[in-house]
Every structure is written in C-alpha cells, then in structure tokens.
C-alpha cells in the first residue's frame, strides 16, 4: 500500500485505462474476510504476464455479454418457429434486457482487470483519444473476437438439438438456414428480404452505433455529474438495449467482436453464406461499428467535452501543470471567475506530483 493511501496494482501503480474508477475505493471493502495470501500465490501472479490477464478478462467479458444475448435470441427464434406462445417464452424486450444485463455483468466482473472495453471500436477510440497503448490494441481486439467465438460455440452446444431441428426445417422450406429468422440468425444478424438497399443498412448501423458511442463516452466523462461509477455498467447496458428495442427487427450488429466471432461459428455450422448472404451484408455488420464509434467519440471530444471542468474537479491537470492552467485562464480572461479552480488545484498539487488522480476515464 503506497504512502498516499491509494490502492495500487502490483508493479504497475495504477489500474488499466477503462471502466475501473470504482475500484480505487471499492476494492478496499471486504464482503467476506479474506484468508492470508500465500507466498506461492504471489510468486505465481508475479510471473503471470499482465497482458495475459487483460486479454482473458476481455475475452471473458465479451463472453458474458454475448452468451446471454444470443441465448435470448435462440429462445425467441426456436419458440417462434415451434408455434409456441412466444410472448411467454421470449420477445425482443427480453432480448434487449439480456444484452443489457450481460454488458453490465461483464463490466462488473471483468473491467477491474482489463478496463472493460469489450468492443474493438471502444479500444481504438481509447487509443486515439485517451492514450491507451497502441501495442495492446491487437491483443485486445483478438481477445474480444475470441470471447464472442466461444460464446457462439457454447450456445450451439446448449441448444443444438433445437437448432438442428430448426436448421433442417429451414432447409426443407427455404433451401437454407441463413436468413433473418433462420437458425443462423441466432448467432449473427442478417437483413430482412425486403432490405435490399445497403445504403439504408449502412446508415442505420452507423447512427445506432453512434448513439451508443456517445452514451458510452458521456459515461466515461469524469466531469459528468449524473453518472456514478456504480451506475455506469447499467447505463451502458441500457444504451444497447434501447437500440435493440428500436432496431433489432430491422437488423443491427453494434459490435465488431460480437458479430464476427459468432459469424465465424455460423459459417462453420451453416456454410460460407453466413458471410456472403445478401450481397455480402456482413461487411456492414462487422466494420461499420468502428468509424461510427470513432465519429461519436470525436463528436463528444470536440463539441461536448469541457476539459476545464474536468481539471477543476481534480480529474486531470494541464499538460504544463498549474502554471499552464493559470496562463490559460489569464489569457482567456477567466482568471477572476476561476480563482476557485486554481485554489483547488494548489490544494491537490501534492497528489498530482505523486501521479495519483482522483478519478480516471472509464470505458466498456
């Protein structure tokens, strides 16, 4: 435990950039009295690569997010085809909640280790805007896709008798199981037969993903007074659910890792048509999330973010320190009204010199 009283990760002195703010104080709370840590365990964890922990956390988090979501879709699709009372068993409302709660549980469970990106577009945005190490980006993205791939395999294992029967019925009736409402659509999205214009599909995916991206970035803004670390997982989850309720029947993907990992599983079990269906719609489902999220985060950074408020609350400092901030306030004519800011910064200067921020940016 360092002298300043803040809990630090072994050897790093900080938590990874991501959804980890709550841990700085929450991790000191003991629900159950812990047993003493053995020297053997400490030595094992010391030798274990940090990047391995982070990659496994990203893969596990994506699994936690995708598995309940596609399970709800499986229940909805299988029961619909079996002519069962669908509202009793599943509907799009339940699918939305499954994804929302899956995301919340993924953040709560795995974000303390990796930062809780769970989306290649969020990883890239954090690298662009928040200084996340570029050397870690490929590891994170591959781990996220792997987690989705495993979720698809496990779901097929759980539902295989029902999915196999549905696949056979689809082939007998339509000649394929790859279409919206078919067995393959349990794993990944496909457009409706009437959605022949890819421009509309692109626009829909772009703005759905932008909506989610802006909500995520606002949750990660430490100057946002309406979101606490405890509420961030559920707020981000509800942003996804809101878009599912509004557009799932009209085909959306929202996440490269979520779509690509399960689409690979669909291609293994249902054929390459999983990637080529409907004039290769899959490129929209897989790739549009990245430019849309970068656009959304850039929109927030350039047009909404208030960095002076972020500094004044002790969540960041000027790149030239307190002197640089004073020069800025003087040059912009806000020195008189910002005296409280500079006084507060002087009081926090000691903690800055120790490299400890009161609150860091968070992500999912």
List the helices and strands and how they pair.
Blueprint: H1 23-26, H2 39-47, H3 50-81, H4 86-89, H5 92-114, H6 120-129, H7 137-174, H8 198-219, H9 232-247, H10 256-270, H11 273-280, H12 282-287, H13 289-304, H14 307-312, H15 321-331, H16 339-353
Helix pairs in contact: 3-5, 3-7, 5-9, 6-7, 6-13, 7-10, 8-9, 8-13
What is the gist of this entry?
The protein has 364 residues and is an all-alpha fold. The protein is built from 16 helices and no strands.
Using the alpha-carbon principal axes, give the shape: globular
Number of domains: 2
Q: State Rg.
A: 23 Å
Architecture of the largest domain, according to CATH? Up-down Bundle
Could you tell me the CATH topology label of the largest domain: Glycerol uptake facilitator protein
Low-confidence parts lasting 5 or more residues at pLDDT below 50? Answer: 5-13, 83-87, 337-364
- Given this structure, which CATH class of the largest domain is correct? Mainly Alpha
Going by helix content, strand content and strand pairing, the class is mainly alpha
Main sheet makeup: none
Helicity range: 55-70%
The total count of helices amounts to 16
* CATH level 4 superfamily of the largest domain: Glycerol uptake facilitator protein
Give the overall pLDDT as a whole number: 83
* C-alpha end-to-end distance: 28 Å
Order of helices and strands: HHHHHHHHHHHHHHHH
- Kindly estimate the percentage of residues that lie in beta strands according to DSSP: under 5%
Count of β-strands: 0
């Amino acid at each position: 435990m360092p002298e300043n009283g803040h809990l630090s990760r072994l050897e790093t002195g900080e938590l990874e950039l991501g959804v980890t703010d709550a841990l700085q104080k929450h991790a000191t709370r003991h629900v159950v009295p812990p047993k003493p840590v053995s020297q053997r365990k400490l030595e094992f964890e010391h030798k274990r690569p940090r990047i391995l922990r982070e990659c496994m956390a990203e893969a596990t988090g994506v699994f936690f997010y995708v598995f309940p979501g596609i399970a709800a879709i499986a229940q909805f699709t299988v029961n619909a085809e079996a002519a069962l009372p669908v509202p009793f068993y599943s509907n799009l409302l339940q699918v939305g909640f499954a994804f929302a709660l899956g995301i919340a549980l993924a953040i709560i469970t795995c974000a303390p280790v990796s930062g809780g990106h769970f989306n290649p577009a969020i990883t890239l945005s954090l690298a662009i805007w928040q200084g996340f190490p570029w050397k870690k980006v490929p590891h994170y993205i591959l781990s996220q896709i792997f987690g989705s791939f495993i979720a698809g395999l496990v779901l097929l294992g759980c539902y295989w008798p029902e999915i196999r029967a549905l696949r056979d019925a689809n082939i007998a009736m339509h000649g394929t199981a790859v279409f919206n409402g078919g067995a393959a659509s349990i794993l990944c999205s496909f457009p409706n037969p009437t959605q022949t214009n890819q421009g509309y599909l692109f626009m829909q995916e772009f703005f759905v993903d932008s909506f989610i991206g802006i909500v995520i970035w606002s949750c990660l803004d430490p100057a946002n007074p309406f979101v606490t670390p405890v509420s961030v997982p559920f707020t981000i989850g509800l942003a996804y659910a809101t878009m599912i309720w509004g557009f799932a029947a009209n085909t959306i993907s929202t996440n490269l890792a979520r779509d690509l990992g399960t689409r690979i599983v669909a291609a293994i079990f249902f054929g390459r048509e999983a990637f080529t269906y409907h004039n290769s719609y899959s490129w929209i489902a897989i790739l549009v999330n990245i430019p849309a999220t970068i656009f959304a985060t850039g929109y927030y950074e350039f047009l909404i973010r208030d960095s002076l408020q972020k500094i004044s609350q002790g969540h960041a400092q000027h790149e030239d320190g307190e002197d640089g901030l004073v020069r800025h306030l003087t040059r912009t004519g806000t020195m008189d009204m910002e005296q409280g800011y500079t006084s507060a910064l002087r009081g926090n200067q000691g903690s800055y010199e120790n490299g400890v921020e009161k609150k860091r940016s968070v992500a999912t």
